[in-house]
Design goal:
The complex is a heterodimer of chains A (155) and B (142). Chain A contains six helices and seven strands; from the N terminus they run βααβββαααββαβ. Chain A is of the alpha+beta class and 155 residues long. The longest helix of chain A has 13 residues. Classes of the chains: A alpha+beta (155), B mainly beta (142).
Chain lengths: 155, 142
C-alpha cells in the first residue's frame, strides 16, 4: 500500500474559477452571488463570513492506495464521494444548457461540471486522462425516443 | 407470506421536464488498463445481456467495436447484430465480470448509454421493483 499524500486540483477549470474569486473579489452582491453559484454548480462549498471574507473549500487531500480496491468498492457504495453524488440530477437540472452547448458530443461530467466534450469518445478519453472516475454520456442531436418497455414516448 | 430484505433503495430517476421516472443505475466500467468510468445504465429485466453503445468499445480495451463474437438477438424492433465481449463493472460495491454486448444501433439518450441485463449481473443481486413508488429495491445477498 502506498501512503504518499498528495494534494491535487479537481480540474484546471476549477482552479481558474477559484483563483478569480479569490484574487479579484466581487464588486457587487450580484457578482458575489454569481461567483458563489458557479462554485456551487461545481460542488465546491463556499460562503461569505460576517467580516465579508469568502471561504472556499477547494483542495482535496488524497492518500493513494488507502485500501484494497475490493474493500473500496464496498465503502464507496455506502459513502459515495460528494463529487460523485446525483450526477443524473445535475444532468437533468442542466439538460437544456447542455443540449444547447454540446449537442452531438460525448461529455465527461466531474464534480457537477462538464469537464470535457468532444464529438468522438476517443478524443474525449484523451482529454480526461487523470480525472478520477468521470461520468460519461452522449448528448444526441436527434430527438430522444424511448424505445424500451418502460415508455414509448418522444421527449 | 414471503419476506425479502433489501439493503439498497434506489429511487427511479425523474426526468423533470417530462415527469417520467426511469430505473437508472450508475455503474463503474473498469477498463483492462485500470481506468474507471462511470456510466448510467437502464435497469432492464427484459435484456438478457448488459448492452452498451458501440462507441464505448475503447473502454473495454478494444480497437474496434465489431471485432468480437457476433450475436443476433431478437428484439422488438427486429433482428440486429451485436458483438459480445467480457467486461468488468462495479455495481453497488460488487465487482462483476460479465458478458457485454456492443450495439451500434443503441438509441442515443443523454440519461443512459446502455442497459443493465440479466446474464451474470442479476445473479449477484436480488431485485424488488416497485413501480407505484418509483423505487428499485436491491440486495447484494440474494
Amino acid at each position: 500500500m502506498t501512503n504518499s499524500i498528495r494534494a491535487h486540483e479537481v480540474t484546471s477549470d476549477l482552479k481558474t474559477i477559484v483563483t478569480s474569486a479569490v484574487s479579484t473579489g466581487a464588486k457587487s452582491p450580484e457578482e458575489a452571488l454569481g461567483i458563489l453559484e458557479r462554485l456551487d454548480r461545481r460542488g465546491i462549498e463556499s460562503f461569505v463570513t460576517e467580516t465579508s471574507d469568502s471561504l472556499i473549500r477547494y483542495w482535496t487531500i488524497g492518500a493513494q492506495g488507502f485500501l484494497n480496491p475490493e474493500h473500496a468498492a464496498v465503502i464507496r457504495s455506502k459513502r459515495p464521494s460528494p463529487e460523485h453524488e446525483n450526477v443524473l440530477d445535475w444532468l437533468s437540472k442542466n439538460i437544456a444548457d447542455i443540449q444547447a452547448q454540446y449537442t452531438g458530443q460525448w461529455i465527461a461530467i466531474y464534480a457537477n461540471a462538464v469537464a470535457a466534450a468532444n464529438p468522438t469518445l476517443h478524443e474525449l478519453l484523451g482529454q480526461i486522462i487523470g480525472i478520477d472516475r468521470p461520468f460519461i454520456t452522449f448528448i444526441p442531436k436527434e430527438p430522444v425516443v424511448w424505445k424500451f418497455t418502460y415508455a414509448h414516448q418522444k421527449l | 407470506m414471503h419476506t425479502k430484505n433489501f439493503e439498497h433503495v434506489i429511487p427511479f430517476h425523474l426526468i423533470p421536464a417530462h415527469q417520467i421516472s426511469y430505473p437508472l443505475l450508475e455503474v463503474i466500467l473498469v477498463s483492462p488498463d485500470g481506468r474507471r468510468t462511470r456510466l448510467s445504465l437502464l435497469f432492464d429485466t427484459g435484456a438478457s445481456v448488459t448492452t452498451l453503445k458501440a462507441e464505448l468499445f475503447e473502454l473495454i480495451g478494444l480497437q474496434r467495436w465489431d471485432e468480437g463474437q457476433p450475436v443476433q438477438p431478437g428484439t422488438g424492433g427486429g433482428q440486429i447484430t451485436v458483438y459480445q465481449y467480457t467486461a468488468t463493472i462495479e455495481l453497488l460495491g460488487k465487482l462483476i465480470t460479465c458478458p457485454v454486448w456492443l450495439n451500434n444501433q443503441f438509441p442515443s439518450n443523454p440519461y443512459f448509454v446502455g442497459v443493465l441485463g440479466r446474464d451474470t449481473v442479476f445473479n449477484e443481486f436480488g431485485f424488488g421493483f416497485w413501480e407505484g413508488t418509483h423505487e428499485l429495491y436491491v440486495t447484494g445477498n440474494p
